[in-house]
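Lecture notes, continued. The same structure-token format from the folding unit now serves as the input rather than the output. Read the line below as a description of shape only.
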């Protein structure tokens, strides 16, 4: 398992961790700002309820939810795929080089994590908007 001592692999791990943090924070900021925008539009109709919402706490809430969702979905998308290919190469007695295998698993994991986190944050935003539907219907 000298592949984990290779400097290219260490660099791949650092870039992957940086990409995971940056992508999850960007997704959280985008969905958080959409939520804040909807709350501000609602606050124009009912200014008394606008004081109940703090934009920074909403943004922090989305970041706190996005990080574990992204990391867990990344691991669930990357590790089983890479492991199955590696075990399959050992069973077939045709060993692969692990660096391209880890790189491919990382790319697939990042793609899966972006998709799952986007769907998760969209669902969270939709659910929170459905809680506001009673307030919006009262203002009409």
């Amino acid at each position: 398992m000298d592949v984990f001592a290779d400097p290219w692999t260490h660099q791949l791990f650092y870039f992957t961790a940086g990409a995971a943090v940056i992508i999850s924070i960007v997704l959280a900021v985008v969905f958080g700002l959409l939520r804040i925008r909807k709350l501000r539009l609602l606050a124009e109709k009912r200014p008394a309820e606008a004081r109940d919402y703090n934009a920074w706490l909403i943004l922090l809430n989305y970041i706190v939810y996005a990080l574990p969702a992204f990391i867990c979905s990344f691991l669930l998308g990357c590790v089983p795929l890479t492991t199955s290919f590696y075990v399959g190469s050992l069973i077939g007695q045709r060993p692969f080089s692990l660096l391209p295998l880890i790189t491919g698993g990382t790319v697939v994991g990042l793609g899966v994590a972006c998709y799952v986190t986007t769907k998760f944050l969209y669902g969270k935003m939709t659910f929170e908007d459905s809680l506001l539907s009673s307030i919006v219907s009262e203002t009409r």
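Point for the exam: Helices lie at 7-45, 47-50, 55-91, 98-139.
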